[in-house]
Amino acid sequence: MFNSVCVVGLGYIGLPTAAVFAKTGTQVTGVDVNDAAVKTINSGKAHIVEVDLDGLLQGVVSNGNLKAQTTPAEADAFIIAVPTPFKDNHAADLSFVEAAIKSIAPYVKNGNLIVLESTVPPGATDKMVAWLEEARPDLKAAGGAGTAYYAAHCPERVLPGRVLIELVQNDRIIGGITEECAEHAQDLYETFLKGECYLTNARTAEMAKLSENAFRDVNIAFANELSLISDKLDIDVWDLIRLANRHPRVNILQPGPGVGGHCIAVDPWFIVDAVPDTAKLIRTAREVNDSKPRTVVDKVKRAAARFKNPTVACLGLSFKADIDDLRSSPALDITTQLSSELDCDILAVEPNIDILPEELSKTGLQLTTLMDAVERADILVLLVDHLEFKRLPSGKRAEKIIVDTRGIWT
Ligand code: SAJ
């Protein structure tokens, strides 16, 4: 029975998870090192943008079920949802996981459950347990005789923009340090979960999460490679994919300006880092997807060379459609490269933000509306398939040079 949960890391995963637990009546302590985020959350608002999260937060903060703070507190279960970026050599940086487990160590009691939700390489849950036992040698080891603490890995699998729906509906994979640990974690998630729980060991759960994102990365790379091939063979890649997908067992994804976000562009590297000589396809897919922004920049530069003093409009800055998240965005990368490499007016349109990030505003780039950009630009570079752009009447873009990286105007 879990009456209280302490969630460490109140970002895109931790905060919605804390709120969903709190909605079931569980007493939730949310922990984050960012004091400003803690204050915002305690005022009933989210410091991140996610559909319906503000409304949910307001309810659970005002009824006292969720409280945010900068230090952990005792609880029946602890959930760690901190970032795991990669280092220069593509190895996972587990320093946030290490800091999180060390921060909760003084509060853990035998009988408590600790779940690692962060995406991690194989073996990281064992490492987390080792860090805990180093800090608290008095605890009975997970799986040991008598009442021990329990530890498991339960990777998050939710899609930004649909987090509150997918948190509840998606199936979960739970990898226990022991079978009993996995069963305890299942009891915890069944507090709110409508999807199924599938139990396994921690190593398999770690690899399952990485495999899901590597699968998508490889499939997007296939589409991106087709777009590069089609350019060389003078074939319309969108037409090509539409036609190939008429086969009952073919489902090619969509090419784009590259793969962004903090998951698909990162997680496959953890597999490559673990088994560099074997993960050849996964590495190549990463390289193909990472090469895409440069190809787009070169294409725009070739188009710009046909004008004396062109105005270029970059349409979209976020890493995918209809969100405001600019982190690791190929669209942002392309726009930044164009503004440093082209000596001409560059306009940016991003309907989901009000101000440009600092690194772009200091380049002299102007953020403007779609209509203004379309009016003024000679070259339209479509980088994100936002709804607003899809709805642009075709007459408005007639007589413009178009570089459409998403195929929405073909
Ligand atoms: N993209 C393409 N072509 C496509 C599909 C996507 O170029 O056909 C691009 C997008 O524009 C974006 C990137 O790929 O730049 C990633 O977008 P996404 O929608 O594929 O995925 P994310 O990063 O928002 O979320 C993924 C999801 N994983 C899978 O679908 C296997 C989500 O379920 C995970 O929870 C999330 O990663 C995560 O946190 O790991």
Any chance you could write out the topology, listing elements then pairs?
Layout: E1 4-8, H1 14-23, E2 27-31, H2 35-42, H3 53-62, E3 66-69, E4 77-80, H4 95-104, E5 113-116, H5 124-135, E6 150-153, H6 163-169, E7 172-176, H7 179-189, E8 197-201, H8 202-233, H9 237-244, H10 267-274, H11 280-304, E9 311-315, H12 330-341, E10 345-349, H13 358-361, E11 366-367, H14 370-376, E12 379-382, H15 387-390, E13 401-404
Helix pairs in contact: 1-3, 4-5, 8-10, 8-11, 10-11, 11-12
The protein binds ligand SAJ.
Outline the structure in words.
- There is one protein chain.
- About 40% of the residues lie in helices and about 15% in strands.
- With about 400 residues, it is an alpha/beta fold.
- The protein folds into two domains: about 5-195, Rossmann fold (3-Layer(aba) Sandwich), CATH 3.40.50; about 220-405, NAD(P)-binding Rossmann-like Domain (Rossmann fold, 3-Layer(aba) Sandwich).
- The strands form two sheets. The chain has an eight-stranded mixed sheet, with helices on both faces. Strands 11-10-9-12-13 form a five-stranded parallel sheet, with helices on both faces.
- Helix 1 (about 15-25) packs across helix 3, helix 8 (about 200-235) crosses helix 10 (about 265-275) and helix 11 packs across helix 12.
- The longest helix is centred in the middle third of the chain and has 32 residues, at about 200-235.
- The chain is globular.
- The relative contact order is 0.08.
- Ligand SAJ binds near residues 159, 216, 253, 264 and 320.
